[in-house]
Design a protein that fits this description.
Blueprint: H1 4-17, H2 26-42, H3 49-53, H4 57-80, H5 85-99, H6 102-105
Helix pairs in contact: 1-4, 2-4
C-alpha cells in the first residue's frame, strides 16, 4: 500500500510529465477539490438515509471514483502548499479528541462550542 508521500510523489510526477504544474496553483486545486466534492454529493442527493447506506454496485463504483478525485486534489493541494497532510490529520485528531471528549459528547451532534470542555 502506498503512503501519502508515495502518492504525493506519484501525483507530482504525473503533473510534471504533462506540464500541468502551471495549472496546479493552490487556488485552482482548491476549486477543483470543491467541484469533485459537489460531484460526490450529487450521488446522494434526494436519497433517504437507508438508500445512501446501500448504494447499488454501479453507483458505489461512481462514488469511489469521486472519492479518489477528491483525495488526488487534496494531496496535490497539500503538496503545493508544503503541508504534511499526515501530520495535519494527526494534529487535527488530537485537537478533536480535546474538543469532543467521549464522556461528554457520546450520542450528541452538538458542536464543541456548545458545551464546556476547556477549548
Amino acid at each position: 500500500m502506498e503512503t501519502f508521500d508515495d502518492l504525493k510523489t506519484r501525483l507530482r510526477a504525473f503533473a510534471v510529465a504533462r506540464d500541468w504544474e502551471q495549472f496546479h496553483s493552490p487556488k485552482n486545486l482548491a476549486m477543483a477539490l470543491i467541484v469533485e466534492a459537489a460531484e460526490l454529493v450529487e450521488h446522494f442527493q434526494w436519497l433517504t438515509e437507508e438508500q445512501s447506506a446501500a448504494l447499488p454496485t454501479d453507483k458505489l463504483a461512481e462514488v469511489e471514483q469521486e472519492l479518489a478525485d477528491i483525495q488526488i486534489y487534496l494531496i496535490r493541494l497539500a503538496d503545493r502548499l508544503n503541508i504534511n497532510l499526515e501530520q495535519a490529520v494527526n494534529a487535527k485528531i488530537v485537537l478533536n479528541e480535546r474538543r469532543y471528549p467521549a464522556e461528554k459528547v457520546r450520542g450528541s451532534a452538538r458542536k464543541y462550542t456548545e458545551f464546556d470542555n476547556g477549548c
